[in-house]
Amino acid sequence: MRDEKILVVDDDPAIRRLIWKSLQSTGILIYQSDSIEKTLDIMSRVKFDLFLLDISLEHEKDGYHLAQMIREQDPLIPIIFLSGKKSEEDIITGLETGADYYMTKPFSPALLKAQVVATLDRAQVIHAQQQKRPTNEIKVGDFRFDKVRYQLFKKEQLIHLSSKEMQLMQFFMENPDQVFSKEQIYRSVWNDGKVDANTIMVFINYLRNKIEDNPKEAKYLKTIWGVGYTFLPSGK
Prior knowledge:
Helices cover 42% and strands 20% of the residues. By secondary structure, it is an alpha/beta fold. The chain folds into 2 domains: 5-132, Response regulator (Rossmann fold, 3-Layer(aba) Sandwich); 137-231, Winged helix-like DNA-binding domain superfamily/Winged helix DNA-binding domain (Arc Repressor Mutant, subunit A, Orthogonal Bundle). A 5-stranded parallel β-sheet has the order 2-1-3-4-5, sandwiched between helices. Strands 6-7-8-9 form a 4-stranded antiparallel β-sheet, covered by helices on one side. A 3-stranded antiparallel β-sheet has the order 10-12-11. The longest helix has 24 residues, at 109-132. The protein starts with a strand and ends in a 5-residue tail after the last strand.
């Protein structure tokens, strides 16, 4: 039995009942809505795995508009259009709007079930592949660290750093909003048990001169007096 959540958006209660009957044997949790307003309210409270949308709700093209809003929140969420509009132009528009599949009414309950299950299965595979894929960059706040090219970007502007500055910046970006003593930083970046506090101070100043808007008033790489340093990637 499946445990995904899908939202059916159609202003025809008979269609919503038919969809529920078609899918109830799968174990999928089926939520229902008949308008954009209700849909947005439900979406604010529930995370869905798939949307089944009609095109014509209150207005002629509400479904297209709703699909665009869903895509803005989650570009990868599966969307299936169920519509009485059957022209090639309508189907193309639906797919261009962001639908993964377009089914016309009246539809076969068995075909709908097969399409929903196949779409959810494909989404699970894609999600699993993304989870396994090693990330080649770190993105936090205003900064992006490219591990492949070993480059740092601030607000998409390249910042040139030395090798040790890059290692120090990578350490901070992997551990944002945390306070570290000089000893912790030295052992993590220099891999040496014997701490050289002056070296830490020098490299912190080097970094500030390159990443701060005003190095004398640091907002990203801040000193915590008596403790050490912390990196605030958004400068707040």
